[in-house]
Amino acid sequence: MDKNNEMLADLLYPNARDIAYYLNKYPMRTQAGEVTRLAPSPTGYLHIGQLYQALIHKLIARTTGGVYYLRLEDTDNKREVENAGNMAYQWLKKFGLEAEEGYLGNLGEVGNYAPYIQSKRLDIYHAFAHELVRLGRAFPCFCAPRANKDEILASREEKLNSTGDIEERDVCRDLSIDEIKENLRLNKPFALRLKSLGTDRTYEFYDEIKGKRDLHENMKDDVLIKSNGIPVYAFAHVVDDLLMGTTVVIRGQEWFQSLPVHLELSDAFNFKRFRYAHTPDICKLGENGYPRKISKRLDPEAKAEYYLMQGYPINAVLEYLLNLINSDFELWRKNNPNISLFDFPLELKKIGLNNPLFDFNKLNDISKTIISKMTAEEVYDNAIKWAIEYNKNDYDILTKHKDKFLSVLSIDRGGDRPRKDIVVYSDIVKLYDYILPSFKNEFKFELGNVDKDKLIAFLINYQENFSMPIDNNAWFNELKEMSSNFNFADNKTYKQNTTAYAGNISDVSRFVRLAVTGRE
What we know:
- By secondary structure, the protein is α/β, with parallel strands linked by helices.
- About 40% of the residues lie in helices and about 10% in strands.
- The protein has 21 helices and 15 strands.
- It has helices at about 5-10, 20-25, 50-65, 85-95, 120-135, 150-160, 175-185, 235-245, 260-270, 305-310, 315-325, 330-335, 360-370, 375-390, 390-400, 400-410, 430, 450-465, 470-485, 490-495, 505-515, and strands at about 35-40, 65-70, 100-105, 110, 140, 190-195, 200-205, 210-215, 225, 250, 275-280, 285, 290-295, 490, 505.
- The strands form 6 sheets. Strands 1-2-3-4 form a 4-stranded mixed sheet. A 3-stranded antiparallel sheet has the order 5-6-9. The protein has a two-stranded antiparallel sheet with strand order 7-8.
- Strand 1, helix 3 (about 50-65) and strand 2 form a beta-alpha-beta unit.
- The N and C termini lie far apart (about 80 Å).
């Protein structure tokens, strides 16, 4: 071991413990299955992509008999939003995706690997930083931070080597121990950088989702710990995932480009490399007709709460996300209609490679199917829970006219072909407002070839003589009998001689529906 490196480590991190203390403090996990972790940053609301990730983490751990835990990565204090960490946990819990271990929002933490909040782990990071300096794989950089993105890009452009790869060797990596001591004596702030040993070599890497991929070795002296003593993601996640026993790091594909840095960092510590799985992104078609990642800035549907605000059942959102994650889910659900979605045997290798396009039509179909299987009481109770939180006016209407809504919600429930007219709970009052005393029917007739005078005469007669039939067949038979008195014919007869009749039975049914409900 180089004595200068040992001396430098003690100079930079004089109070750091030996990493053996932490390696002994945190026990080796004994679970046979995968250990996964979701690690949100408290920088805003919970994103639909984080629900997508959480569902993968939870199912992979559950399928393999492992553990899924939650870690809060709150080291970006410039972007941190007050209480966002707790809100992320609360929203995960609302969707049934909270972890059984780790960060529990304002409730604290549970598990043998605490703290699960990165800002409370600085002593751990400094111990591992000390070790990396001692090994000669990190050095202090006293350069002022670059001012902006343009300056960073310009610097990288200058350092492009002949192969087209970026070789970013920091100027401070060759400072002598005396120069470093003088900078420290002058109280110059420093960032800790990785002393990269990478070349322009390419090697093969196996991603648990993407499969075999060629990677270039890292050639950048990346910042590991900022001048304020707080680590960047690359350093913190390697340390945390080692100590917390993560077996597979599942994350968005935006991290794939920086993977060589993370691998070199693991190698520098002589850690066994983690397995990595980079998931595709949820996309939508942009205005130019090309897919783009769903954006917090541009898309209201990026917010996880959006779907509950609209009144989608939680299971509808999760089942739709599972369709995006793995196309096998749809067939599994068809064969297992009554089993919890959390029992779906998800495998990382079965996750699609292409970025899925978000499709509200598919989500709506799933939502309609789920609501159609509920009893009238379940639909009503769920609508009430939704309205309490999101729509006071609907809540007042639903509670004031409970019996009416239960009655109309009971129609055509159960059986092999239940009705599927309700997409979201926010539909209910709008769909059935015709049962309310305050309803005003403002529909407009689009008559087509129907005889107007005959139709009006029929509707007046129907209103005066209608009596509630026993079932649908009895209703339709009564409708046919009454309409025939006003020269309306069945479809087959009508088509044989359209000019001889006022219209057909389909027209009559449609206009009765319009007269009663004001809707097609």
